[in-house]
Write a structure and sequence with these properties.
Length: 632
């Protein structure tokens, strides 16, 4: 059985048997009593009663067969370092570091925040947590101290593991002051911080609660102290990853151990077509779900080699770097965000730098994180002369909802589509009332419950929020908050979010979160943030602010302050660089801000003045303000 249709049908025929079969590819301390228990959690739990350890399956399981094979190739364009770490060495380092964190009092079920750049120690920290059953929570380095504090308060970590700094092309990001500020801001008090001082960079200054990674690691290594893998329930959490929701409070997406391993391993064979010993490169960051799934867990579960790349697609040093990394390390599958390809295309429109490298090892390029626009796909297909596959997923799912199962069958792609539903996902396009839309008609994209293994079973300590956020609108479905349509051949087209989330350079951000920050400025009466189209980053946030009456300071000063405030409170990753002062926000008579209409004006698209608008003249005022800034 090898066709997509057959495999999808076999899953439809026996949804539990399908995943039970896939689970047999992994090592379990005890097999499940039930493949799926629909009575546990918001919609059910996979592999109930099974015992396992994810780190064991990622590392120890492979050591007898492939001890010397590279598990990780760390390639840094920021420090000009390339380091290959074998399965055996990585297993040993993880076992040693697991002892270090266990000595800090961390044990099964405790949370550990990891705030690190793209260095091997980030992966070692994640896997060491997994080894002892601690629940890691990786926070992307581009978030500010306030965002870190929100996560500390929510997941209450026993320990924070961090590096002294991250390296951006234009600056060194000192992590320690950010951590100190976050610890100060947080109401939950973290006892210990373990700092990895990066070689050759200015060291972080250490306080009484800070411990030195290298010193403790070397001591444990010297004494040959390690910790064994702890046997965990398949339903125990492996990690929490926070993502933007509809308010300023991010959602702590929970990942379990058993279902996640099964899904990750299945996707390596069937979606990416990567065999053990082959090389996968997800050019993302360990702070995002793509990094969790395809830099760390899936390639290691498969016994493949993963590339850990510290750098950008352009400017480090130039737009040839992706192709040089592929040539040097024999990458078989590249996975990145469309924005990275747009950045490369802008610098090398003729693809000459691609022709100068030997990319023959590469079989396909997978794109996700935002909608892949047809121009970018066409350019990449022609410049690379290889399949370019858009696939759609979310932090909540951990793996592709729709894709081309490249390892199973090289089905045709369709431009503008994120392709076909994967086994595990039965997709319907629904109207607001919950009816099914006919083919090609746009509606809310919903997934029939239960979600497959790997998908979030809940939000950290908040089943109620999970149910309200995802399960309440359409009975029997998970609401994706994406809108789109499906054609006659079941190809899915994801067009827009139905909530306030925007997608900036493949990063998911909440405009509501930015509005909360801006509204706190003392001179701002009200504000609205929405996404405008951007050729490079897909979308960029734009803020409209209305000042309190009686404010006499220049509005340009307040606009700058608001921009700084978003950078300081949310972080540079928000890429919030434009705030405009207007007299009034356009609203409906019932007081709803007309975001869709403002977005259309900012994007230079045609629009009809909504019949419910309170005062149509406001739209002309906005157009005048936009025109002065060359917007629209
Ligand atoms: N730590 C600290 N700051 C970070 C950071 C990190 N890990 N990552 C990004 N930032 C900062 C950047 O330095 C930038 O700061 P600036 O305003 O001072 O210039 C800001 O956050 C915005 O970053 P970004 O949106 O990434 O823009 P960029 O101009 O640095 O790079 C691209 C543009 C397209 C090259 C880059 O966005 C990219 O490679 N994107 C790929 C996206 C991706 O991997 N998505 C994951 C899902 S697959
Ligand atoms: P994140 O949780 O950060 O991975 O972001 C998930 C969101 O990004 C989705 O809900 C979509 O809105 C968007 N997204 C991700 N991949 C795609 C894709 N291939 N096509 C369209 N939108 C996508």
């Amino acid at each position: 059985m090898s066709s997509y249709k057959d495999v999808y049908q076999s899953w439809l025929n026996d949804k539990q048997g399908f995943w039970e079969n896939a689970a047999n590819d992994l090592s379990w301390d005890k097999k499940w009593d039930q493949v799926f228990d629909p009575t546990d959690g918001p919609y059910g739990r996979w592999f109930k009663g099974a015992m396992c350890n994810t780190a064991y399956n990622c590392l120890d399981r492979h050591v007898p067969d492939r001890p010397g094979q590279a598990a990780i190739i760390y390639h840094s364009e920021m420090t000009n370092e390339v380091q290959s770490i074998s399965y055996e060495d990585l297993r040993d380092d993880v076992a040693t570091f697991a002892k270090v964190i266990a000595d800090q009092g961390v044990s099964k079920g405790d949370r550990v925040i990891i705030y690190m750049p793209m260095i091997p120690q980030a992966v070692i920290a994640m896997l060491a947590c997994a080894r002892i059953g601690a629940v890691h929570c990786v926070v992307f380095g581009g978030f500010a101290a306030d965002e870190l504090a929100i996560r500390i308060n929510d997941c209450k970590p026993k320990l924070i593991i961090a590096a002294s700094c991250g390296l951006e092309p234009n600056r060194v990001v000192e992590y320690k002051p950010l951590i100190d500020k976050a610890i100060d801001l947080a109401t939950y008090k973290v006892e210990t911080t373990l700092i990895y001082q990066r070689d050759g960079q200015s060291p972080a200054s250490m306080g009484p609660n800070d411990k030195d990674w290298t010193q403790l690691f070397d001591e444990a290594k010297h004494k040959e102290e390690t910790v064994d893998c702890v046997s965990l329930d398949a339903t125990d959490p492996l990690y929490i990853l926070y993502t933007s929701g509809t308010t300023g409070k991010p959602k702590g997406v929970v990942r379990d151990n058993g279902g996640h391993m099964v899904a990750m391993k299945w996707t390596m064979n069937n979606i990416y077509g990567i065999e053990p010993g082959e090389v996968m490169w997800a050019a993302s960051d360990v702070g995002w779900v793509v990094g969790h799934s395809y830099i760390v867990y899936a390639p290691l579960l498969q016994g493949a080699t993963t590339i850990l790349y510290e750098g950008k697609p352009v400017g480090t040093p130039d737009a040839s770097i992706f192709w040089k990394v592929i040539e040097r390390h024999g990458v078989n599958i590249l996975f990145t965000a469309p924005t990275a390809i747009r950045a490369i295309k802008r610098e090398d429109p003729q693809g000459e730098l691609i022709d100068q490298a030997d990319t023959s090892s590469m079989r396909a390029l997978f794109l996700a994180g935002e909608r892949a626009d047809p121009d970018t796909i066409k350019w990449a297909q022609s410049a690379l002369d290889k399949p370019v596959i858009d696939h759609w997923w979310q932090t909540e799912t951990a793996w592709a909802i729709t894709a081309i199962p490249f390892g199973l069958e090289k089905c045709a792609t369709k431009l503008g589509s994120s392709n076909l539903p994967m086994p595990g996902y039965e997709i319907d396009i629904l109207t607001d009332e919950g009816g099914k839309c006919p083919p090609d008609e746009i509606g809310a994209i919903a997934i029939k419950l239960p979600l497959p293994p790997g998908c979030a079973p809940t939000i950290w300590e908040d089943d109620v929020r999970y149910k309200e956020s995802y399960l309440s609108k359409f009975k029997g479905y998970y609401e994706t908050a994406d809108a789109g349509y499906m054609d006659e051949e079941n190809y899915v087209y994801v067009m827009a979010r139905t909530d306030d989330v925007i997608n900036v350079a493949g990063h998911r951000l909440s405009t509501g979160g930015m509005e909360e920050v801006i509204a706190a400025h003392e001179d701002v009466a009200e504000c609205a943030v929405f996404g405008v189209q951007d050729k490079l980053k897909g979308q960029l946030p734009l803020g409209l602010i209305v000042l309190n009456s009686g404010v006499t300071r220049p509005s340009s000063d307040i606009e700058q302050e608001v921009i700084s405030l978003v950078r300081e409170k949310i972080g540079p990753v928000a890429a919030f660089k434009t705030a405009l002062t207007i007299d009034r926000l356009p609203k409906t008579r019932s007081g709803k801000i007309l975001r869709g209409t403002i977005s259309k004006i900012a994007d230079g698209e045609s629009y009809t003045t909504p019949a419910t608008i309170d005062d149509p003249a406001i739209l002309d005022d906005i157009k005048t303000v936009f025109k002065k800034r060359n917007i629209g």
